[in-house]
Amino acid sequence: MTLLIISPDYASHLFPLATLGTAWLEAGERVVVASGPATADIVAAFGFERVNLQLGRGSNPGTIRAEDQPTGEDDALRGFFDATRLGMVETLTFQAEARSNDLLWNPVEVARAVQQIVADVQPDHVIVDHLAFSARLALISAGIRHADVVLGHPSALPVGLEVYGYPPDWPDAFAPAGDDLVALMGICENVRDSFTGQWNAALQVLDPTATPSADAFMECGDILLLNYPAELHDAARGELLPPHAFLGSAVRDEAADADVDRWLADGSDLPIVYVSFGSFLSVRGDVLARVAEALRGLDVRVAIATGATDPAELGTIPDSWLVRAFLPQVTVLERSVLAVSHGGNNSVTEAMTHGVPLLLLPFSTDQFAGAAAVETAGFGLSLAPNTATAAELRVAMAALLALGGDARQSLDRLGASLQGGAGPKRAYAALLAVPVEL
Fold it and tell me: A Pfam family for this UniProt protein (predicted)?
């Protein structure tokens, strides 16, 4: 049996997708990944075959920098980073307006390339990143049965009256003006309609007999796989989803890192706090510096993945801290008692898997909905990254370090249910229950 995984050329997308594929590899099956060249080493590290597929202009092997991107994509990234400094609505507005240019990149050409890969590989099952719209267009137009994997918060697939790009929920720390929200909704609706027009135009070329989509953002594969814990999702919203399975998390095995292992093995009794803003938002060194200032006032050991930020921006680094551009996140989280994050889905699900409460500072996209869900469950707190002071951050950190009672017990139960490779096993079972006929 052969599994084909279709992924954008971004490490943050490929890591969880490839982790799902480990269940097939462990069963002695063949796994082929279609992705771009920037993530080729990641595919090789998993032991999978790879075929080349470029799904967009940009790429990210681990830490993204604007200067490493092709012309046009670099300016778009700088514009996005600038928008995050203004606030929630400004960032979501920028992202909504950018979608008309970056979500369906050369859709007909990419779709035909995907269809050729399927013809060459002859997979028994296909899983594809939900945000790989051109690839999904290829599969839908050719009638190729597949599983659609939502790697972010489940609201990445809108249901009911939801509109893609407009968060269905956000933490109380954000209080956007009503007029601003009305304007954002109008922009998201216009983008939805424009994007659906582009989708239908490409669909008409690929399959002239196909029924046009009413909302291309709501299109889905034959089964929906959600890389998210069901325990954090509103049950009423779940009833509106198409056939689906909640995977919980896709926590990867990481290669041993001798320096990190030595640091973790230190005999100190101080609790460990892990800090990371992921591959994109690590550029916000100003916020990382405030987080570091807050942590210097607590009796903790700290591991900070600075990503694109120069560690010098953080100020004085205590000797007991571990500060590097990149850290093996899963390994460090396993020993941590608190994590400070931007609220990316990998960070959230990996922290939940190890029962680690979260202080979330969301900047963009589905991070707001994800942060609200964590806060509602009692597993974390959220603050606005542009306005939270070091003192406010420290108070929130202290509260989460002392997390106890029902919230602590519920988080421990959730973590236990997500461990042992639960996500890949659930994905494997879900696909075997719905045979894919090519």
Answer: UDPGT
Q: How many residues does the chain have?
A: 438
Q: At residue 24, what is the residue type?
A: W
Three-state DSSP state, 413: helix
Q: Angle at which helices 178-206 and 88-102 pack, to 10 degrees?
A: 10
Task: Write the pLDDT tens digit of every residue in 1-34.
Answer: 999 999 999 988 999 999 999 999 999 999 999 9
Residues 244 and 225 in one domain: yes
Q: Is position 89 within any domain?
A: yes
Q: Which residue has 């500060």 as its token pair?
A: 323
User: Which of 31-60 are b and which e, b meaning 16 or more Cβ less than 10 Å from the residue's Cβ?
Assistant: bbbbbbebbbebbeebebebbebbbbbbbb
Q: Under DSSP, is residue 308 helix (H, G, I), strand (E, B) or coil?
A: coil
Strands 338-341 and 322-324 come out as: unpaired
Residue 214 lies in a domain: yes
Predicted local distance difference test score (pLDDT) of residue 279: 82
User: Are 138 and 267 members of one domain?
Assistant: no
Mean pLDDT of the chain: 93
* Residue 438 lies inside a defined structural domain of this protein: no
104 falls within a domain: yes
Decide the pairing of beta strands 322-324 and 272-276: unpaired
pTM of the model: 0.92
